[in-house]
Amino acid sequence: MSAIDNKSLFEQAFTNNYYMLKAHSANSEEAAEKALELARVLASGFGPIDDAQFQKWSLEMFMKYKIGLEVPKDYVMRNSKEKSWFEPKMAASGFFWTRYRRYLTEAKNWPLEAVTAIDETTNQIMASVGNPKSMEPFDKRGLVLGYVQSGKTANFTGLINKAYDVGYKLIIVLSGIHNDLRAQTQIRLNEEVIGNRTDKDGNPIGVAQIYANTAEHIISSWTTEENDIKSSQRGTSNLNSPTLMVVKKNKTVLESLRDQLITHRNLYNLDIPVLIVDDEADQASVDTSNPDKNEDPKTINRLIRQILEVFNRKAFVGYTATPFANLLISKEGRTDEEGDDLYPKDFLVGLPKPKEYCGPEEYFNVEEDAEDTRPSLIRHLRQEDLEVFTTIKKKSDADKFEEVPPQMREAMLEFLLVIAIRNLRGQRKKHNSMLIHTSRFKDVQSSVKDEVSRTFDAISKQLQYNPESTVIAEMQELYENDILPVSRDWPNENHKEYGWNEVYEELRKCSETIQVFEINGNSRDALDYHQYKEDGLNVIAVGGDKLSRGLTLEGLSITYYFRNTLMYDTLMQMGRWFGYRKGYMDLCRIYTSDEIASNFEHLAIAMIQLRQEFDRLAALKKTPSEYAVKMLSHPTMMLTSPLKMRNAVSTNVIYAGTLQQTRLFDPSEEILKGNMEAAVKLANKLPLEKTAYRKTNFYTAYGVKSDMIKEFLSEYQTADSNIVNSAYIADYIDRANHEGELTDWTVAVVEGNPSASSGLSDYPVELGKIRLKSAAPLGKKVKAPESKHQIRDIGAIVSPNHEYMDLDYEEIKEIKDRTEKRRMRDKEKGLMLIYPLHPEVEIFSSLDVEFSSKLVPIGIAFSFPGTEIDDTSVYQTNKTV
């Protein structure tokens, strides 16, 4: 045997032993030392390993498996403080989990941190569900909080493998409401749990590459890639042996499954432990009936609960990136026939953000930092494109889409450039997808697909056969004025630049490979990336709701998006652009309207804040219901549909540990003047003195009583939006005052200092009795919307140094977490910043307002400390039914 083979054997032996020993030991280094000795003994049987080689290989194992380094821990909330029946060693050496773990590391080449994260989090979930070996009845219900397009499927695949190892017999996966997603999930689980898929030559695909199935490790399935549960068929396999089902959340399917399970229970005296995994658990599963009117539970919710009621030993685990609806389910919801509602009463597990995952932070300025210098990946749609889709309001308007508008065409050209550059970067034969989502109407989608196909064919022919074509000049301009500048400035990336001729030659080749698919119930097109895995699929996918949730768009880089909603969960799920973008994040673009981009950015900020709150509350050992309270207290937009919020009453907002800053400005001259007058009135009352902090000048007053802040907020009018609401903030300050908090304030007026690069000169401001050298410029170029009457989103106005101007810099400079810095303030003390803003930036100069030294836009910001207020006494989160 060669040295290379011997080393491979050494590592394989080490890996298997290390994971098994680590599950029995609290000390990973001790487990590693023992595993290394066992690996040496085994590998030495095939060839000598001297001490130097052993030391070298051992060091490599320590480095590769990050032994001794802390892996970020997931957080978990549980209602029960009892010791769990589950111990990690139960699954560490199990057939199914070991096979899946090795498949991820050896066949899929997943990084060790990702596999370890799945191992750790699924252990937490296993510790929260019932013991399948116990004959005592149990009913466990929980929720797993992940990120959109972040690998939740890989996590529940790990959970399923472990569940079979510890004795669960039946596992039912509820996979969306569409056939495409159900089939996609079935294929994935056939490969990565059942192990029954082969390629066209009969070679095993998936986990069967690692270990073939043995007689005692066979998993049956009542569903296949093609077929869901049907009423005409009867499940024939014995449910006393391991069985897996992947079913749609569909009335006919679930009724048939329920009836067949009842038949098996009655005929065979069935008493087995069942695990139900609900993928996209906030979709269709939540009961929206009105208990005040004695309505029955809605169909899908009712059927899931009836299926659970068939069993005495059951666990229900929902997976979602948007948990709002699930946590607002009534805790008291129960009926005689359906049993308890699906409220996650027993546990909540938060999955860590995976490495290489591009989420809201990568696309949006979620820290609301005015000094964020990253180039934007958002391309705002102009009037010509907007008018095309604002006129399409019903399906009969499909014939109004007569040709591809200019920026949709530009997005298609950009997609071509992405493929060419990824090929040149060594990412050839990878999947590339573009998403066009403009309407929920299938007829409209068909019209768009036809025109996109026609336009793309024309572009492709020009590239291939006409070297003088204007298309080539357009693409060169896009490459040099958009692609290259963003790639150069994208942080932590250092990509090689390619000359235009090299890119052009690649474009000519790849333009022949692109297909245009229509993804909806009317079309036979299917996003079967697996079918194209050898050469990669390059696809422009035109669709609507089918592309809004669950269905993964592999290699998604360009999105053209024109749909809107003000509900958190719907909006976030429609953002399919989150995911793994290793090596090409700088090439991604989102073409959308100003309004949608603004809503998404505010949503992204809210999601990050709520996730931070989850982590904080979990570390304090709080319960799922206490986290639900925090969601209700968040000020931004509607969490979910009013129907899903029926069981929850939001009464107040808690701002503790947050930064609130005005980003949306009403263009009305009356409101701009009123806000200036409110700021002048306050400034004249305060003993403002000129101060400096970290190169910024302020006019500052300390020890300001909260009554003056509340009076100012009663006069200052925020834009017609509840994103930052002066009335809500005043109400929160008032409630905090009753608890002895937020009684003393620092108020600071920020003096601007336009840089030479901004192209702005000083703009002097008279704010009552004080004279400022200049109004404050905006931190980055923001463009005015098309209409003069449209709300202005000016982006972030607060630089980090401004927010901490009342804190000791030496004390806070090592603290990275901004919430933690805010919590360093005494509970009695708040900070209010006043920003006279530069009116010559385009977003303000485009208004019909005559600005002067005595009238400029006024922005405000609040930095709140922590609180001792007991949130649970402030809110009513669940009405009793």
Q: Report the strand count.
A: 30
Low-confidence stretches: 565-569, 636-651, 872-881
Sheet bearing the most strands, described? 8 strands, mixed
Q: How confident is the prediction overall: mean pLDDT?
A: 83
The total of helices stands at 28
Largest beta sheet: strand ordering: 1-12-2-9-8-3-7-6
Helix content: 25-40%
How far apart are the first and last residues' alpha carbons, in Å? 71 Å
What is Rg? 29 Å
What does this structure look like?
The chain is of the alpha/beta class. Helix content is 38%, strand content 15%. Strands 1-12-2-9-8-3-7-6 form an eight-stranded mixed beta sheet, with helices on both faces. It has a six-stranded parallel beta sheet with strand order 14-20-18-15-17-16. Strand 10 and strand 11 form a beta hairpin. Helix 9 (251-268) runs parallel beside helix 10 (299-309) and helix 21 packs antiparallel against helix 22 (706-715). The radius of gyration is 29 Å and the shape is globular. The relative contact order is 0.08.
